[in-house]
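Standup notes
- HV: blocked on the assembly model, inputs below
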Amino acid sequence: MSKQSIKVTVDAVVFGYESTPRISILLVRRKYDPFKGKWAIPGGFVENEEPLEDAVYRELKEETGVEIGYLEQLYTFGQPERDPRDRIISVAYFGLVKPNAYTIAADSDAQEVAWFDINNLPNLAFDHTNILDMAIKRLRAKITYEPIGFELLDEKFPFSDLENLYTTLLGREIDRRNFRKKILGFGMLDELQEKASKGAGRPANLFQFNKKRYFELKDKGIVFEI
Amino acid sequence: MSKQSIKVTVDAVVFGYESTPRISILLVRRKYDPFKGKWAIPGGFVENEEPLEDAVYRELKEETGVEIGYLEQLYTFGQPERDPRDRIISVAYFGLVKPNAYTIAADSDAQEVAWFDINNLPNLAFDHTNILDMAIKRLRAKITYEPIGFELLDEKFPFSDLENLYTTLLGREIDRRNFRKKILGFGMLDELQEKASKGAGRPANLFQFNKKRYFELKDKGIVFEI
DNA sequence: GCAAAAGTGTTACAATTACACCCATGT
DNA sequence: ACATGGGTGTAATTGTAACACTTTTGC
């Protein structure tokens, strides 16, 4: 009991979205053994007096330079054999970044950090494929009952971005009219007096997620659901 | 990093149900400091080569003698100040026991282990009140989208037991006809040729949850939902 | 004026809710 | 025969899903 020698790490599956459209995940290439040279999700050891979430933010900044807008705990992975050398328990998180925060630190060696399309992932170190699978499942499920999709879009976004995000993540077509009716019906989006400039076709109105309003509605018992 | 001195425990919030009706939670009284004499949820240190879930089953058996039928990970609590002495991270689980497993080990001092009604809980050691709150929320939410309620009932149960369980947990009346229609409509309950014996009134038919059938239906895309 | 994406309403269908009486047993 | 809990169907309402044309801009 008092001779317990278990180490604790945090790891973070960080998702980004481009309107290409593609959903991507932030990976780092390992510099040391075990699994030297393999891609892995960013993470590292928790310091003795450090809260778990702080450790996640710190490691992400150190390893990738990315600052995330949304973070939640995913699951704790603790199988004794998950690390070939020591007993290491990993508290995994999942995070979302907006496109404008979607850049990798200038001081990182670009060869060591990269975004990968979730449909085209490399083999990963440790049990990170498991962690990633769970994170993807959680994200897919969660966007249907919590308004976290906005955390993957710019502050101001055209409605079609939201629609494409859902189409891409859920892997099925969505009826534009019904979707718009439903989302706008909640009343948690502010329609701005601004139009998207770039691109072909008719310019879209921009919208903004009103978080304060969302919590008011939630308190009233209104449930977000797709 | 290599001087990390964090310890890892598991703790389990174990729920039971009696058709009184009441939802109860298994607690143990602490024998040692810190919080000596206070009630706490059962748990303890993970051994070096021990999977986390094994540690939960072991601690539950050692401390309470209760064998649980359902177990899932809840959340990992890691605030540095959650234990007044050391840095201890707790991987919390939540478990469900059927009424017939609802007994406390004969070799336990009865004064040290007890079931408490969730509406009448004592002050708890550490941050266990937080853990418990989260577990209750999770249970309430989860019975609406996964068929875990059966894990709190006997193998064979009258339909009214299920209805009362849901009424009690959700804290609102449920229309008997609509509820029955919906649940039986899923086709995951077998109606037995047996009747409940005890009690006043017309004897109820007994039902049994068909887990195999449930997974078949789930694979077909049928989703359980209340 | 044409290509490209944005914006908009109505109808059919499915699911959910509301609601009240008879049945089987024990005493 | 009465008290107790068990068992059952239908109609109204609500929510969801299907569906196609017009508008605004850039080239």
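- HV (later): unblocked. Strands of chain B lie at 7-18, 22-29, 39-40, 43-45, 70-77, 88-96, 113-117, 156-158, 189-195, 205-209. Helices of chain B lie at 52-64, 128-142, 159-170, 176-186, 211-219.
- Next: hand off to the docking folks.
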